[in-house]
Amino acid sequence: MKALFIGGTGTISSAISRRLLELGWELYLLNRGNRNNEIDTKGKPGKLVEINCDIRKDSVESVILKLASASEGQPFDVVADFIAFTPEHVEKDFSIFKTLCRQYIFISSASAYQKPLSSYLITESTPLANPYWEYSRNKIACEDFLMNAYRDKGFPVTIVRPSHTYDERSVPLGVHGEKGSWQVVKRMMEGKPVIIHGDGTSLWTMTHNSDFAAAFTGLMGNIHAIGEAVQITSDETLDWNQIYRAIAAALNVQMHAVHISSEFLAKNSSYDFTGSLIGDKANSVVFDNTKLKRLVPGFHAKVRFDQGIRRTIDYVLSHKECQIEDKEFDAWCEKTLATL
Questions:
Q1: CA torsion angle for 53, 57, 63, 64 (degrees, to 10)?
Q2: Which residue, 155, 211, 246, 315, is the most exposed by fewest CB within 10 angstroms?
């Protein structure tokens, strides 16, 4: 089985790439090559082929067609784009791959579900509408284009909707700066107060990327997934207070939390908390993964958050490259806390 990943080395896709090689797939990674060395191939039956270019800037059609001509015009069982964010991105993908793959997987987002929610329990039939976040509206527009291509032209699309997926390299949080979550972790270790949006009781779901990979690969080459939208999340539900307490416990520190309303944060910050909070994390969500489990029999998420976050903390603390300071965000925290 052959797959082409556009991207392939991010939080979600790196775990899928590793799993595919373990399963014996022939995997082509089309990206700029910045992190391909992190995909370990040793002792794995699969084959990794790198195509180093930028699909958004470079002309890749000739490269893809060359690969196609070597396999009678149908080289890829699956093409998955992990860096498609706008309709223009998926329109280009369609023009390139409309005859060159048996399945095209688009990675959308659970943030595309309606805000505010009419029901806390989310299924794939929950309406898509997010007036607060352009990122989510673009994902919805991508889905619309691809589903029209499926209905009108038979394009074999599968849409996947992740929620908050994390790996070993970054601590998942609700409120952080543009340089990631390390500064919040550092504040915890220094005994400084950390900001939690709202009262911390809204419900959320964290999914480890290894669990996501197990579900995703079960959809690859799956004829029953064609023309379908499928959400992939853990079944574990936590509130934000529990999430932050689990992080503090993994750090073996006392947490000093200050709760601030999401509306206040959105109105009094240069950070995009309107999108990331009002349009996403401030809402209580519980995911019904019945459809996923029907399409991938036997799947269930195995990594409990308190276990997964300990792996993440251990990795981050032992890898300096994950410890990116954000003095601007730290100063914003102090300024915001001083106004209370």
A1: 110
A2: 315
Q: Give residue 105's identity as a one-letter amino acid code.
A: I
Q: What is the CATH number of domain 2-165+207-232?
A: 3.40.50.720
- Give me the residue label for tokens 């519980």: 286
Q: Where in the chain is the domain with CATH 3.40.50.720?
A: 2-165+207-232
The 10 Å CB-count burial string (b at 16+, else e) for 111-140 is bbbebeeeeeebebebebebebbebbbbbb
- Measured CA to CA in angstroms, residue 225 lies from 80, 157, 233, 255 at distances of 14, 8, 17, 43
pLDDT at 43 over 90: no
Residue ranges matching CATH 3.90.25.10 in the chain: 168-205+236-284+303-338
Residue 317, phi then psi, degrees to nearest 5: -70, -20
Dist CA 286 CA 271 (whole Å): 26
CA distance 196 to 243: 10
- Backbone dihedral angles phi then psi of residue 174, each to the nearest 5 degrees: -95, -40
CA 6 to chain centre: 14
What is the per-residue DSSP string for 126-178? SPB--TT-HHHHHHHHHHHHHHHHHHHH---EEEEEE-EEE-SSS---SS-BT
Q: 168-205+236-284+303-338 sits in which CATH class?
A: alpha beta
pLDDT of 268: 92
User: Is 120 a residue whose pLDDT tops 90?
Assistant: no
Beta-bridge mates of residue 158: 105
Helices 87-97, 134-153: crossing angle, 10 deg rounding:
30
**Average pLDDT across the chain, whole number:** 93
In terms of C-beta density within 10 A (0-12 exposed, 13-18 middle, 19 or more buried), how is residue 145 classed?
buried
